[in-house]
Inverse folding.
């Protein structure tokens, strides 16, 4: 219970003490007497922190209101109250730096803020909001609450609904307005934005955007997307441009190479072509000159050669005649030699004949008859001998002092030693020393005859042989044969001689021969070879001559004469000089080419390539130009930055929208809960108060006991009259007082009422006063009015201001 | 004798900065020219012989002709011996492109367009210099343009300087490897006396001054987006005839970007929000702050007031509160609503069954609806 308020300095009030009593207190005073200031001081003393900042609006507002006009820099009050059986005095000095708060508890001063706060809670059991919204509220605020409900009657059909509605809209917060505000805010953020899918509604992208109702999220989303698109667009163009430029660069480099190559080769094209023409002319002249020089040099030689050939032919022919004559001579010699040889042969044969004849003469001429005689003799001898042989005698000297000499029939003797054996033909004479001579003849034959025959024949033979001069029969035979051979030979030679033809008698072969021998003639072969050689020589000379003739004829037909050759040569030399000097000033065919055709085709090819490249580059340059023109003036980096900025902003708004969503959901839950809560005691209080106003037109007690029935009961429908402008003040007051009653806690509650009776008619004023008085029975009420009559009607503790 | 080189890169003239408000966008576009102008002024102040620009002067090959002319006009003010211009991947070289035709037609006489992969020889301060140029000829390339150098033998009697453009793996990842990727090791192996690289939007080395490094990545002279957290800068490099090196990072940029996460605890105040930007000229800062943490309910409630106060302090500020949550408790509910009323019950339910953030959102709308009444 507030007991006393000491205002040291507060707004326009100085050093004023207001004492309050239990129950109803009425502060009365005219306007501007400081009643509301006093109430502000009361409220501030209880709730407003002594420390006044200079930044917060509410602090500034408070200072403006509470500090004395015009130089006041502080306000100061002390409030004395009783709580839980103790009396406290809370002292406050509001100041921006030297603020003071202290609490006296039965003479003891406490400065500790939290201790003070703890103690204050024993009196101020509710939060400040409850006091400011209900206990200290302007009655107008409650009236407004019902005015709002009244404008919305169709939803409020029963008193219970009315009360619930009023309860819900308590605290000056219009739920409809609040919900509307939340929704409009939510809408302003999320309009056409799908919060769940996190996309624009209907997937309408920035390129086909929503045209209306674009919430902040969508706006920033579009902005972000547009920036992203622009960034990407720009980046793509940037890269495309880079690519095209790189291509142009590569082609240009290629082109530069081609152009410099062309510059090198094509610039001399005319020269090269002229060079080629002149060069071929020069070559022609040079070739002609070569020929001319040769011809010039050869012409006299050729003519000399020709006459040489003639001379040679003549000489060779002479030589040929000579050799042919020689040959003739040699041939007659040959013929002579044949005769000569025959002659010589005949002479030698004749000599041989002479010789053979002499030989034959020298020979003992043994005839064939003589040989036959000899052979007969020999044969007879042989036959006698065979007979002798057939009467062989064998002997053996058996014993003798001397060797025996054995002589055979032929007179041959052999010495035979003792013991030796021997044989002889038909006869033997044995002589042993001087004393013994023994003849032995074989009887087997007619030895004597045979011996005689043998002897005679042998002797005849010997005689014959001597006569014939032959040593033996054989010799005689040989000599006979030799003679015969010589005779044959002689005959043959004689025949040969006879075969040799007869010579002319007047020829002296030997003389002629010696003549020839002195001549030393060559052989026929040599001469014949010579002839062939000379003939060949002549043929060769004739060929030379023909060749010379051929050339000379050709030259004549070509150059007409040797003099003309010299003239042409002179002309050519000056032409050559002219051409050479002209050529020296011309560029030659570059070495890399072997022909002008190759050179020209290379030029054409290179030009074509260059032209192709130029066209390509032109096309690319147009493309680059196009891309460049499409390229925004801002770089992709700046667009990406914008994208990030916008996305960040969008996310902020999304977060806010989500919070709003949560708030709205929770609000719905709260409202649902409020609808379902029974409010029984609050309703009872409210109806009790209402009944005072409605003069018990409803049996509220009964109603409340059967609340469920009552709400649905037609008879218990909200009387329209109840919310008429005349009764609205009363109803608002009834509701406020019921709320205070039912706040919970059994302490008496402070209720500060402003001048809420003035708009009521007399009847309602009385009923309201009853209601207030009734309320003051349970609570401390401070009623502020500027009307004395109100104060009088209310009674209670009257405090005049 | 020493060669003095001023090395910058990646100016990206022609960026559109579409996400920023119109007037700031115009300033950001213009500031890129300003950075180039600053580079020329600084290079002249430091009496540099060479201004080396290692690629991406232009954002796109379609950059407006007047921008190209504006660039060559700015370059015309440089009074050193040479300006070496290397085409990067954003402004790659292609003979056909109007960009480089216009550039060549209007560039100052001391400007050399290094559009061929070859050795360019110069004489600077009586020192003979071989510049190994590795320009880009396309926007994307999976391979870098250093291969030709590996097969070329260096003349050690000359000053060998590489100018190349491409992502350096160790400095910043090129996820798709499509921006002429190269490595520090690879660059080191080329044996250059100095390598000036462009593309990677991180200055390298990450120190202010050095006498040992041979590889330099310039970053950009004018920060170009929230992912560039450094000052816009260039390198001032001295190379004496003995090849001793001295390099210094020179600030060039006007604007600076911050993309930071700011952890909050209970309270959110201007001081809290400004803490990361001490010593910075807020008017030239473009800032995105990702708030992360829980705020007391009243701080949370008043967060927009605090945040919107930032708007006028910075050139541009964007506060992301995705990770910012209110400490929304029954206390607030008690303070605001009548016990067991619908809003009271709803908020309690949301705290129990969802989270404080959602409950707070519900609460904010309640307040709004009630204020409107
Ligand atoms: Mn690049």
């Amino acid at each position: 219970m507030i007991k006393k308020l000491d205002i040291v300095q507060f707004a326009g009030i100085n050093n004023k003490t207001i004492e309050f009593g239990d129950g109803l207190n009425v502060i009365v005073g005219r306007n501007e007497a400081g009643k509301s200031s006093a109430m502000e001081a009361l409220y501030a003393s209880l709730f407003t922190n002594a420390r006044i900042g200079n930044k917060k609006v509410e602090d500034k507002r408070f200072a403006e209101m509470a500090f004395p006009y015009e130089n006041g820099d502080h306000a100061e009050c002390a409030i004395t109250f009783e709580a839980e059986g103790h009396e406290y005095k809370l002292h406050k000095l509001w100041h921006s730096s030297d603020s003071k708060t202290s609490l006296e508890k039965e003479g003891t001063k406490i400065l500790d803020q939290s201790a003070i706060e703890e103690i204050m809670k024993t009196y101020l059991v509710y939060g400040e909001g409850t006091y400011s919204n209900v206990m200290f509220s302007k009655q107008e605020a409650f009236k407004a609450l019902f005015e709002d409900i009244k404008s919305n009657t169709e939803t409020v059909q029963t008193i219970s609904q009315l009360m619930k509605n009023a309860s819900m809209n308590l605290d000056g917060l219009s739920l409809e307005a609040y919900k509307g505000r939340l929704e409009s805010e939510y809408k302003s953020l999320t309009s056409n934005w799908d919060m769940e899918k996190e996309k624009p509604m209907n997937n309408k992208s920035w390129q086909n955007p929503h045209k209306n109702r674009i919430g902040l999220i969508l706006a920033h989303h579009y902005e972000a997307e547009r920036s992203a698109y622009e960034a990407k667009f720009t980046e793509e163009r940037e890269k495309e441009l880079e690519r095209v430029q790189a291509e142009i660069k590569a082609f240009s480099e290629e082109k530069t190479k081609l152009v410099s190559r062309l510059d090198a080769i094509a610039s001399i094209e005319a020269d090269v072509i002229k060079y080629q023409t002149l060069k071929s002319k020069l070559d022609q002249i040079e070739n002609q000159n070569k020929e001319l020089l040769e011809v010039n040099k050869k012409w006299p030689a050729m003519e000399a050669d020709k006459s040489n050939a003639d001379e040679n032919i003549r000489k060779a022919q002479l030589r040929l005649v000579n050799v042919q004559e020689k040959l003739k001579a040699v041939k007659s010699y040959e013929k002579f030699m044949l005769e000569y040889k025959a002659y010589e042969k005949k002479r030698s044969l004749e000599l041989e004949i002479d010789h053979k004849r002499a030989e034959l003469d020298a020979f003992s001429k043994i005839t064939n008859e003589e040989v036959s005689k000899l052979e007969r003799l020999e044969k007879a001898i042989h036959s006698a001998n065979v007979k002798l042989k057939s009467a062989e005698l064998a002997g053996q000297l058996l014993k003798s002092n001397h060797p025996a000499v054995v002589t055979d029939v032929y007179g041959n003797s052999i010495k035979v030693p003792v013991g030796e054996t021997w044989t002889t033909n038909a006869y033997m004479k044995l002589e042993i020393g001087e004393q013994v001579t023994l003849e032995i003849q074989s009887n087997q034959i007619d030895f004597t005859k045979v011996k005689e025959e043998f002897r005679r024949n042998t002797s005849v033979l010997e005689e014959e042989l001597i006569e014939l001069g032959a040593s033996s029969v054989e010799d005689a035979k040989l000599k006979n044969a030799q003679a015969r051979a010589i005779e044959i030979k002689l005959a043959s030679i004689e025949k040969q001689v006879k075969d040799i033809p007869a010579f002319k008698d007047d020829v002296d072969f030997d003389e002629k021969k010696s003549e020839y021998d002195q001549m030393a003639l060559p052989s026929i072969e040599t001469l014949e070879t010579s002839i062939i050689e000379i003939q060949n020589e002549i043929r060769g000379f004739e060929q030379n001559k023909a060749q010379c003739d051929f050339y000379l004829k050709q030259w004549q037909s070509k150059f007409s004469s040797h003099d003309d050759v010299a003239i042409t040569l002179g002309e050519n030399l000056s032409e050559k000089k002219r051409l050479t000097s002209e050529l020296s000033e011309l560029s030659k065919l570059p070495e890399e080419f072997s022909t002008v055709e190759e050179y020209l085709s290379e030029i054409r090819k290179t030009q074509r390539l260059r032209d192709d490249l130029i066209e390509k580059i032109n096309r690319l340059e147009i493309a680059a130009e196009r891309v460049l023109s499409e390229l925004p003036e801002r770089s992709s980096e700046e667009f990406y930055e914008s994208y990030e900025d916008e996305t960040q902003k969008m996310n902020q708004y999304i977060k806010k929208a989500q919070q709003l969503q949560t708030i709205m959901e929770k609000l719905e839950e709260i409202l649902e809960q409020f609808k379902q809560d029974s409010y029984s005691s609050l309703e009872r209080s409210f109806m009790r108060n209402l009944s005072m106003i409605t003069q018990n037109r409803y049996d509220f007690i009964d109603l409340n006991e059967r609340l469920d029935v009552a709400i649905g009961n037609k008879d218990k429908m909200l009387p329209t009259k109840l919310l008429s402008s005349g009764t609205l003040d009363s109803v608002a007051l009834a509701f406020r007082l019921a709320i205070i009653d039912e706040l919970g806690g059994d302490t008496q509650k402070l209720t500060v009422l402003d001048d809420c009776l003035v708009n009521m008619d007399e009847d309602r004023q009385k009923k309201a006063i009853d209601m207030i008085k009734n309320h003051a029975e349970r609570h401390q009420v401070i009623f502020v009015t500027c009307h004395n009559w109100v104060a009088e009607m209310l009674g209670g503790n009257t405090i005049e201001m | 004798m020493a060669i003095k080189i001023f090395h910058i890169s990646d100016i990206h003239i022609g960026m559109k900065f579409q996400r920023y408000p119109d007037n700031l966008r115009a300033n950001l576009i213009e500031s890129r020219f300003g950075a180039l102008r600053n580079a020329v002024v600084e290079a002249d102040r430091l009496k540099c012989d060479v201004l080396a620009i290692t690629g991406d002067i232009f954002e796109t090959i379609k950059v407006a002709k007047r921008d190209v002319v504006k660039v060559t006009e700015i370059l015309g003010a440089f009074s050193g011996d040479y300006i070496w211009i290397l085409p990067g991947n954003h402004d790659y070289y292609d003979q056909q492109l109007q960009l480089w035709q216009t550039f060549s037609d209007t560039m100052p006489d001391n400007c050399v367009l290094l559009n061929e992969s070859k050795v360019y020889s110069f004489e600077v301060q009586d020192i003979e210099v071989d510049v190994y140029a590795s320009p880009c000829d396309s926007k994307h390339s999976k391979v870098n343009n250093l291969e030709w150098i590996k097969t070329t033998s260096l003349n050690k009697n000359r000053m060998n300087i590489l100018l190349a453009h491409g992502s350096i793996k160790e400095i910043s990842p090129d996820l798709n490897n499509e921006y002429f990727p190269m490595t520090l090791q690879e660059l080191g192996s080329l044996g250059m006396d100095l390598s000036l690289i462009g593309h990677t939007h991180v200055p390298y080395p990450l120190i202010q001054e050095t006498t040992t490094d041979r590889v330099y990545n310039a970053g950009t002279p004018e920060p170009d987006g929230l992912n560039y957290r450094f000052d816009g800068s260039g390198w001032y490099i001295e190379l004496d005839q003995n090849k001793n090196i001295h390099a210094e990072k020179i600030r060039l940029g006007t604007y600076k970007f911050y993309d930071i996460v700011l952890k909050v605890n209970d309270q959110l105040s201007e001081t809290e929000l400004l803490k990361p930007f001490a010593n910075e000229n807020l008017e030239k800062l473009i800032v995105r702050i990702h708030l992360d943490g829980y705020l007391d309910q009243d701080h949370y409630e008043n967060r927009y007031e605090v945040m919107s106060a930032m708007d006028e302090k910075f050139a541009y500020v964007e506060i992301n509160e995705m990770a910012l949550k209110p400490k929304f408790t029954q206390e607030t509910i008690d303070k605001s609503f009548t016990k067991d009323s619908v809003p009271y019950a709803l908020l309690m339910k949301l705290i129990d069954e969802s989270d404080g953030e959602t409950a707070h959102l519900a609460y904010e709308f309640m307040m709004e609806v009630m204020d409107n009444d």
Q: What stands out?
A: The mean pLDDT of chain B is 93. Residues 2-251 of chain B form a domain with the Purple Acid Phosphatase; chain A, domain 2 fold (CATH 3.60.21.10). The first strand of chain B starts at residue 2 and ends at 8. Chain B has two domains: 2-251, 260-372.
